[in-house]
Design goal:
By secondary structure, the chain is mostly helical. The protein has a domain of 84 residues. 73% of the residues lie in helices and 0% in strands. The protein has 26 helices and no strands. The longest helix is centred in the N-terminal third of the chain and has 46 residues. Keywords: Repeat.
């Protein structure tokens, strides 16, 4: 028997099939979103446990064993926790303990990302002995994890905190004893140069270039690294002199070269020269990138030209490029510099509509603009918006907010910010603590100042000598010798394991 199917039945069947596909897709998306949210909650929980763990009084290993079931551990989980610990400014030794803990499980495969994050956390706190220990261990067991990024992390921190000679010795040690079997070439040479250039140590960078360029033939990246270094010194003449040296050596300028020069001109207030280079790029068929236009939007802001900033921002889509968070931040910065703070805040809503998130720079720029405009209400509104999204700002923003709240005699907001950051598993910067303790002590709230300092020390971070001396004075005046003794004991225990202050 043959059945005839009417067109209307075909439409119903088609619609039913499409609806079924949509439901399956939506369900799959919901499940993935739910799993991601659960993973984030677990990552945040472990980050808080590690950060809150009393250090160095009790070992961390039993706590990790108690709170992290082996089946929940994976390479991605380890990477994400280490990323959170890095952002949270966790004590380097605790992060290192977590990393070593993860390596004990055979189903957790070590990754370059996890190794690099651990190395970064250690070197940021100047635990160089532990950082070398980690590199030597990786060289023996998993040499494939040794990357140029890992080399860059180590050399950049040594260049920052140690001497020129120590940095060169570290490079030689990596070549002879760490990256064994790897022939060092121009890429490794570029990493060494970049270590000095990012620290604006151009005398040292030029010395290295002169000493080693015969052994490691420079490429375009080498020249751009040096050009960037000169730009970071804010010396426009040095930038142009070296640019002409590049051309004389027959290196063809690329988009990166132009972006560096444009940024140098814009930061010196020569926005017109930046635009001239932008036009020159197109004439020589070197297509401007999204970064080029973003740099010019910043330049328009420095030149107090919001009309041109908007034109450049709109030009992004006209060039078939997609504005990213950096482009929006550049426009927000330009509007803030010109006093158009409300227009900048409206851009936050547009970013949400375009599914582009807000980052630390977005909040920092807007907080800065609202503070300059004079009212605390706007700052409080943005602060509520940020905390409702459970976003933790970067260190410079926490310090800026703490200073503003304390100077505005809103110690309640300062304490709220401190509790919020600590409650999210982060360890605030010692400058933020200094501002809060100063404000609290000057208003006779010594007990709260003591508790905040104790929280800092218990998380494995030092308090400055100025903060300790201030607390000492006020605690003695209040007859709280026992509290002072507690802080003194915690400080001494911590000094035995923490590296000395660079100051």
């Amino acid at each position: 028997m043959i059945f005839s199917v009417r067109p209307r039945d075909v439409r119903h069947l088609t619609n039913f099939h499409q609806n079924a596909i949509w439901i399956r897709t939506a369900f799959r998306s919901f499940c993935q979103s739910h799993l991601l949210q659960e993973a984030k909650i677990e990552i945040d929980k472990i980050t808080r446990i590690i950060n809150d763990h009393p250090f160095p009084d009790t070992p961390l290993y039993p706590t990790l064993l108690c709170h992290i079931p082996s089946h929940t551990l994976s390479s991605a989980f380890v990477e994400n926790v280490l990323g959170s610990l890095f952002v949270a400014h966790t004590n380097g030794l605790k992060a290192y303990e977590f990393y070593k803990f993860s390596l004990q499980f055979s189903h957790v495969h070590p990754t370059s990302d996890a190794f690099e994050k651990t190395l970064h956390i250690l070197t940021r706190m100047r635990y160089f002995d532990k950082a070398w220990e980690l590199m030597e261990e990786i060289a023996k067991r998993n040499p494939s994890l040794l990357t140029l990024k890992a080399m860059s992390i180590m050399l950049s921190r040594i260049a920052k905190f140690q001497t020129y000679e120590a940095t060169l010795k570290a490079f030689e040690k990596m070549e002879k004893h760490i990256f064994v079997g790897r022939k060092f070439g121009t890429n490794e040479f570029n990493v060494l140069l970049r270590a000095f250039c990012t620290q604006r140590q151009m005398k040292e960078a030029k010395s290295i270039f002169k000493k080693m360029h015969a052994r490691f033939p420079p490429n375009s990246r080498t020249m751009n690294i040096l050009l960037l270094g000169f730009k970071e010194t804010s010396n426009l003449s040095a930038v142009e002199l070296f640019y002409h040296e590049m051309v004389r050596r027959r290196f063809k300028p690329n988009a990166v070269t132009y972006n560096i020069r444009i940024d140098a001109y814009c930061k010196k207030g020569s926005f017109g020269d930046g635009l001239r280079l932008f036009q020159e790029m197109e004439r020589v068929n070197c297509l401007p990138t999204l970064e080029t236009i973003t740099t010019l939007i910043h330049g328009a802001g420095l030149a107090r030209n919001t009309t041109r900033a908007w034109q450049l921002f709109n030009e992004i889509s006209a060039r078939n490029l997609c504005p990213d968070i950096a482009a929006y931040n550049a426009l927000i910065s330009s509007l803030v510099k010109c006093g158009e703070v409300q227009s900048a805040i409206l851009l936050m809503d547009e970013m949400e509509d375009e599914h582009i998130g807000h980052d630390g720079m977005t909040y920092h720029t807007l907080f800065y603009g609202l503070m300059r405009s004079g009212g605390i209400e706007g700052v409080c509104d943005l602060y509520d918006r940020m905390t409702n999204k459970h976003f933790v700002p970067k260190t410079q923003t926490v310090v800026m907010l703490m200073k503003f709240f304390c100077q505005s005699c809103r110690l309640d907001l300062g304490l709220n910010l401190w509790e919020y950051v600590v409650g999210r598993g982060f360890c605030p910067h010692d400058h933020a603590l200094a501002l809060l303790v100063t404000g609290l002590c000057s208003h006779g709230r010594t007990e709260e100042a003591f508790e905040c300092s104790k929280q800092m020390l218990s998380r494995g971070r030092n308090v400055s000598s100025a903060v300790f001396q201030m607390l000492e004075r006020f605690l003695l005046q209040a007859g709280e010798e026992e509290k002072l003794r507690v802080l003194d004991d915690m400080t001494k225990r911590l000094q035995r394991v923490n590296p000395p202050s660079p100051h």
